[in-house]
Each structure stands twice: as structure tokens, then as C-alpha cells.
Design brief:
single chain; about 160 residues; mainly alpha; Four Helix Bundle (Hemerythrin (Met), subunit A); two-stranded parallel ribbon; 7 helices; about 5% strand
């Protein structure tokens, strides 16, 4: 009987030790998904093309990207409220004029496909601003917004910024 008790105690200790290390035992409802703060189970190689920019240049580009994301939020919020003028205003902030705010020396460092993806997004925001003035149905505006987001996703999947070596 003692060997059984000893084995059972060891099994209990090892199983509870695993739970003690896991802040959310049994996956916390996220079975099979990586949890925040945990290392990924495998190493993922980042194969995106590197665009070398200084820290200051990266800050300029990141500010532009954050503005585009703010425009996406502004457009969706305005559509939900039925506020056409707010859609126009939010989209206008990320149109082609915005692209010119990035200094030419920075833009010259961008590969042509990166620039093309950016131009596509900026043009779509201009189309949203223009076409929303005459359309009351949110469907076409959401379709255009989806097109802009596809360019964003393609760009972020293809490129990353890094300091010059």
C-alpha cells in the first residue's frame, strides 16, 4: 500500500506543479492558442523585406500609419452613427495629400511596391471622402474601406522597418 501512496503523491505533486506554473490552468478558455507573455512554441523567421530608416524617419512613417488607422476608426464610427460628414472628414485626413506630408528623402528610401501599396490606400481614402458625399448606403463605403485595409495588410505582411546597419 505504501508504494501506491508514494506514487500517487508524486503524481499529484507533479500535476499541481504544472498548474502552479500556468497562470490560467487548462488554457483559460484559449485551448490551443498561445497566451500573451508566453514564448511561441516555435521560432518564426521574419521574411519581410527590410526598409532601412533612422529612428526619426520611422517615427514619421509610424505617425502616418497611425493616422490611417485613426481614419479607419473614424469612418467606421461615423458610418455606425450615420454621420456622412464625419465619414468625409475622417477619410480626407488619410487621402493623397497626407502622403505628401512624408518628406521626399524618406519616400525615396521606399521600394516601388511599398509606395504603390501606400498610394492605393491613400487614393481609396480620397474615394471614400468623395463618394460618401453622394451615397447614403454604408455598403459601398465599407467595401472601399475593406480595399484600403487589404493594402495595409499586404504592406505589413511584406515590409518591416529597421535601423540602418
Amino acid at each position: 500500500m505504501r508504494p501506491f501512496t508514494f506514487c500517487a503523491t508524486l503524481a499529484l505533486l507533479f500535476s499541481t506543479a504544472g498548474f502552479a506554473q500556468d497562470p490560467m490552468p487548462m488554457g483559460g478558455g484559449n485551448m490551443g492558442k498561445p497566451m500573451a507573455g508566453r514564448p511561441m512554441p516555435h521560432k518564426v523567421e521574419d521574411k519581410r523585406q527590410v526598409i532601412s530608416l533612422t529612428e526619426a524617419e520611422r517615427a514619421v512613417v509610424a505617425a502616418e500609419m497611425r493616422q490611417m488607422l485613426a481614419s479607419v476608426q473614424g469612418v467606421t464610427d461615423a458610418l455606425a452613427r450615420g454621420d456622412t460628414q464625419a465619414v468625409v472628414d475622417a477619410a480626407s485626413r488619410s487621402g493623397m495629400a497626407m502622403m505628401q506630408e512624408v518628406p521626399a528623402p524618406i519616400r525615396m528610401k521606399f521600394p516601388a511596391p511599398f509606395t504603390q501599396l501606400g498610394m492605393t490606400s491613400h487614393r481609396v481614402f480620397d474615394r471614400i471622402a468623395q463618394e460618401t458625399k453622394t451615397v447614403t448606403d454604408p455598403g459601398p463605403t465599407l467595401k472601399l474601406l475593406s480595399e484600403a485595409m487589404q493594402s495595409c495588410i499586404a504592406c505589413h505582411a511584406s515590409y518591416r522597418f529597421a535601423p540602418p546597419r
